[in-house]
Every structure is written in structure tokens, then in C-alpha cells.
Amino acid sequence: MKAVQGSRRMGTSLEVKRKEIKYYINSSDAFAAMNALGQALDRDTHDKGQGYFIRSLYFDTLENRAFEEKMMGVERRKKYRLRLYDFNSKLVKFEVKKKFNDSIVKETLWLEKRDAKEVQKGNYEVLLGYDSPVARKIYAEFKTLCYKPVVVIDYVRSAFVYDFNNTRITFDRGIRANSIDLNMFNKSLFMKPLLSDKLAVLEVKFNHFIPGWIKSVIQMRSCHSAISKYCIGRLDNKICWI
User: Fold this and answer.
1) Residue 41 clears pLDDT 80, i.e. is over it
2) For residue 27, what is the enclosing H or E element?
3) To pair with 238 at 20 to 30 A between CA atoms, which of 47, 112, 211, 231?
């Protein structure tokens, strides 16, 4: 496919930097924590009270660099994903998520849906039609290291936000994956459950430290360090709570 000619689209970009901690948490403790947090914190604008849908298409190199680096615990690593919240949306989020020690930097580019579908097919030249340094960075990396789509993952998220210290707490449940059919825009796509119904994934994001009262709510006995949703999707195993 030839590079895009003519006028360049203005790609809306955003960069966010903060710390991030992830846990497995059993469902009963997750609902107790959500109830407690809901009494004091605002919900994310996407969350109307019952959680909201997220579907992501992850990319990796031919050598599975992102997967291998995460599994080995490499401190400086990154991953790429397309993400949508609504099948009817005209825009799709393209994210670059980079980890540096205990900090996360996330760069975001919003693509028109038709261009996101081309990226899904491997036609990365559409990125050249966006007047965005993030788009140019993704294009160069994808072409140089031969990135390809590898897994679709979706789940339902409940999210709470606290302005102090840019704190955000999310609970992800019903995590499912498909690593064979990679059409993320297919509403009827078969998705295999990855976790027991008794499990959820808790994520805490913050700038410098977690406010003490929030820490007391979420630090429950059932919490354990969690592997990433991307990795369990690639492993394609059903994980049961013990």
C-alpha cells in the first residue's frame, strides 16, 4: 500500500506519566472495595455505575519481544495496542505503553475507525496521514521491527478517580481473549474466558504515593501480584483461584 498522499489528519495525542500497581483480587473483596470507594470517590466518566466495556488488540514483534520482556521482568519495556470502548464510535485509541522501573508513560493517538481497521490488517502506512509525532513513532517502530496483531482481549471495567495525586483505581472482570481471529471490530467474535469468575484484576495508578485511606481499603488479604492481561491472553490458559 502506498503512503497516504494529500492533506494530513491532525492526530489528537496525549501523554500520561504515573506509577501503576496491579493485583489479582477475589470477587467478594473486589465488590466490597468498590462499594467503599464508591461512597467517597467519583466514577470514571465512562462508568455509569455498572462498569464499561473495553476491547484491545495487542501487537508484538515476530520474536514476541513485548511478551518475552514482560515474562522476564525487564524493567524498560513497551507494548502497543488499539483500544475501543464502543463499537459505534468513529474513533479508536492507539496506545503506546512504556514502563521505566516503577513508572508508566502512556502515549495516545486517536485514529479514525477506517484507519484503525487498516492498521489491524497490517497496513501501517495510514499512520503517515496523521500530523502527529506519536503516529510517526509507531509507524517507524512497526515497520522496522515487523510488528503484527497477536491477541484481542476484552473485559468490563469499574473505575474510580481521585484528583489528589492523580489517583485512579480500576477493577477489571470477565477478562476474555482470542488469539486466532484478530478482528477486534467483530461484535460476535468468540472470546475465551481467561480467569475464574472468582477473580478480578485491581489496578492502582497514582503520581507519587497512594493516599493512606485508599490503601487501607484496597490492601486486602486476597491480593497478590498479577501478571498482565496481555500475557495471560497470550498464554491462553484458564487461571483458577487457589
Assistant:
1) yes
2) helix 27-38
3) 47
CA 82/CA 67 separation, integer angstroms:
16
What is the C-alpha separation between 239 and 175, in angstroms, rounded? Answer: 11
State the Cα–Cα distance between residues 223 and 26, nearest whole angstrom: 8
CB 47 within 8 Å of CB 219: no
**Percent of the chain with pLDDT strictly greater than 70:** 88
Rounded CA separation 132/230 (Å)? 26
Region class of 237: left (phi > 0), else alpha (psi between -120 and 50), else beta = beta
Set of cell numbers at residue 135: 503516529
Its pTM stands at 0.88
CB atoms within 10 A of CB 210: 19
Provide the 10 A C-beta neighbour count for residue 197: 10
* CB proximity list for 89: less than 8 A, separation 6 or greater: 113
